[in-house]
Amino acid sequence: MDSEKTADELFYVSVSTCAQPIAVASEVSLQDYKQDLPLQVYIVNDPSELSNLAESESPVPRSTILSDFGLAVGNISAYSDVYVAVYAPNIDDTKWYGSWSAVISISQKSSTVSYIEAPFMLSDTDSKSAVFTVQDKAAIDSNTTSYVYTYDDPSLDSLQKSYCALSTSTNAVSTALDQFVQVQNTTYFEISDLDPSATYTIYTVTSMNNTKTISTGVQFTTKSNSNCELIYGLDFCSEVAYSVPANTSLFNRTQLGRWYDNQAKSVYQNFIYSLQMIPCNVNEDSRYTILRTCDDCSSSYKQWLCATTIPRCGDEGPNSMYLKERVPSTSRNTAIDEILSPGNYSELLPCSDMCFRIMRDCHSNLGFSCPESGRGLEDSYGVFSTNPENYTCNFLGSRSSYYISSVSEVSVNKFLVLSSLMTSFLLF
After folding, report:
1. Tell me: the pLDDT tens digits for 101-127?
2. Which of 146, 135, 127 minimizes the C-alpha distance to 253?
3. How does pLDDT run across 142-164, given as a tens digit for each residue?
4. Which CATH superfamily groups domain 116-221?
């Protein structure tokens, strides 16, 4: 660098660990096996600050940072040369083998590496693929590459913030994310060619303006049952993005999604004919309630209809207690048994709130009624959990946009006001 400059300039320094020693499994615990071994990075203007650094007990150079899961990022103002030194921690050679390697990057524009929370979330899996919902469209695009590796592979666990480790690992499968599916305001992407009953972690790296932005990892497990298949990108039930009962010898994925979508669409049209007879989009004095309109009723009915007409497959795991086993001729939707014949599968029951919302939002003349607790409710519906790790029932859209209806605070019997002019029916 030109040593004649007198004005300080800001330099961004990043150090990415490409590899580090691996623990001898028989000598350490599983937690140590995946332990981060942080590098110590020193950024200085004066090389004398680095003199005898290795022997010093408490070196205090101008800028000292520790790598965190394979990434150290710092900056320094300088008008002359910049010096970077990297030191590895002392380790017990009887418990660890291998060596460190790292890449040092220096830029005057911005840091060449950054780390963010994953701008996407898992929607669902089937036995060979996974679909994800993009939450931050500004952070993931056609310049994004995904890195997927098996969860029981420890090689990247301790270096998960390092682009060098992600991009050079022989155990990771990289895929360019250039196939996005846009459904109204939601964007999806898919990872395919996976193994059944396997647990993976996916990271994304987005390249923009000479900066690599790495996401936190998202863990997911593929399903064991090949009788279920992922569908998403539907025209009518656009919020459906999950695994459904399938028969691959009868329909491919596109045909399967269209078949389910048409089932729901035809039922919805009949509902609209009935809704047109209800005074819900007139002036407030003539409406059945000033709190709800026909749009509220039709929206709630559509959510319920899509979730019940298109059942969601579950799989063995922590949430198995919330699944209902479906053997032939026991599907919620009889057309599934009569036409698809998917074989055995497990269903994650729809959330009961969707049923209660129809009763709250629609005129009683439509005759909607939900089964009561202890009298069929638990056999047809699950109860929504606010725990983000606990999927106790099926709902449409994102968890953050789905809230528990206050209707649950009111006795169900208060809603069973049925018209004497119409036949009521239970929403199973």
Report:
1. 999 998 888 888 889 999 999 999 999
2. 127
3. 888 899 988 766 667 788 899 99
4. Immunoglobulins (2.60.40.10)
The pair of three-digit structure tokens given for residue 420, joined into one six-digit string: 């004497």
Assessment of whether the complete model's pTM goes beyond 0.90: no
Residue-range domain boundaries for the chain = 9-111, 116-221, 228-426
CA dihedral (366, 372, 375, 381) positive or negative: positive
| Integer CA distances (angstroms), 208 to 115, 142, 145, 205, 214, in order | 13, 11, 12, 10, 11
